[in-house]
Design goal:
136 residues, mainly alpha, 4 helices
Length: 136
């Protein structure tokens, strides 16, 4: 099944997140052994936005009922946004303001998938004397 192409809103959100990561990377360089840390985080954020269950109706990630980021990656992106958010007003003011406005989008209704219940048929149930052979 082919994925739907990303719409205008998710493309703008992806651009904002990637610019935030780039801005953070310029001011917080990594050590030599962890050179591609920011590229991996950018690829991860791109993947998560492409696969968002809500599509174009997606709320801000901090208000989302699903939380599709892994906990460690979520903390990394949260720290990056906390640092680069105010600085985005200087570097990319229109994107920053639109990101703040998008933060107040309504959260769409979400019903979590229920785990499949293990159904045991009557013939499969073990009776108390099933394993005992009756003597003659």
């Amino acid at each position: 099944m082919a994925r739907k192409p990303m719409g205008k809103y998710r493309l703008r959100e992806l651009r904002t997140v990637l610019l935030m990561i780039d801005l953070y990377e310029k001011h917080h360089p990594t050590e030599m052994e962890n050179d591609d840390r920011y590229q991996q985080l950018s690829a991860y954020a791109t993947n998560r936005l492409e696969r968002c269950q809500f599509g174009e109706e997606k709320p801000a990630c901090k208000h989302c009922p699903i939380h599709c980021y892994q906990p460690a990656k979520r903390e990394q992106i949260r720290a990056i946004m906390r640092w680069s958010g105010p600085r985005m007003l200087l570097h990319h003011p229109i994107l920053a303001i639109r990101h703040l406005i998008d933060d107040h989008r309504p959260v769409p209704a979400y019903t979590p998938r229920q785990a499949p219940t293990a159904r045991v048929h009557q013939s499969q149930k073990a009776s108390p004397d099933q394993g005992i052979k009756k003597g003659r």
